[in-house]
Design brief:
The protein is α/β, with parallel strands linked by helices and about 325 residues long. It contains 13 helices and 9 strands.
Length: about 325
Amino acid sequence: MEIKLLITGSSGHLGEAICRTLQSKHQEYIGVDLHRSPFTTHVGNIEDRAFVNSLLKEVDYIIHTATLHKPHVGTHSNLAFVNTNIIGTLNLLEEAVVKNVKGFVYSSTTSTFGDMLTPKEGEPAIWITEDSLSKPKNIYGVTKSTAEDLCQLFYRNHRLPCVVLKIARFFPEEDDQESIRVMYDQLNAKANEYLYRRVDIDDVVSAQLLAVEKLKDIGFGKYIISATTPFEKVHLPELNVDAVSVVETLFPQMSALYAQKGWKMFPTIDRVYVNQKARTELGWTPRYNFGYVLRCLEQGVDFRSPLTLEIGCKGYA
């Protein structure tokens, strides 16, 4: 019997990507969002417990991507973040227990690590794993971290299998730091990030669907979802001092390929996201990484996945 999935945030970047993929597989799903789209079957607010209750009839698994994002910090109140990211998640978890849903996949963020991601000048770059401490530095990080804790609580107290995916940046929009926007071509900056803090949305979707398959066996788990880094711990002291030398040693072809496009590598790299646990326990094999980017540059083709290009830039409402 085919499983039935509920996808929240179905009009957003990740939600649409998941729904597109399910449609291509001719798999049934319920797509929920505040905004109408070709991938949203039900328009409504997850803050409304009655609305959530009405969705979960015969649903097997929930993939929860709906959220207020980091860019909303400047446009939305703290209460709005609490209502959407915490109350909305709580409603879904509670109704999942009531309706005997088989499992819950929560889309979180590496932003929950917050102040852990920034070493002092000259100190080694930070090696970030699932065991790294969360030190949120804004309401976005606080609410996402709290929602992660709710998932763990519902597994502990109700045995609702929950997997938390701590997803690195995948958005196609320009960088939120003005200094990066001014100094680097947009694709140049994104290419650099595949070394340590970016993931293609196609790989994120595959992680989401693998998490659904593994929920029963895992019970509860947190996984960093980021492109596979070429760096090892031995590289950390130099990365935050002279990242260019490290990258040139690992990828001798990078300098010539970058020069052809007028691109440049970041002078320093402050953190490295490690996806080993996701690759081992989820059986996840991300396709897009810095080596892939360089191969695309050699061939003169776009390194972004077809799915990334299909979805395009949505901005943040």
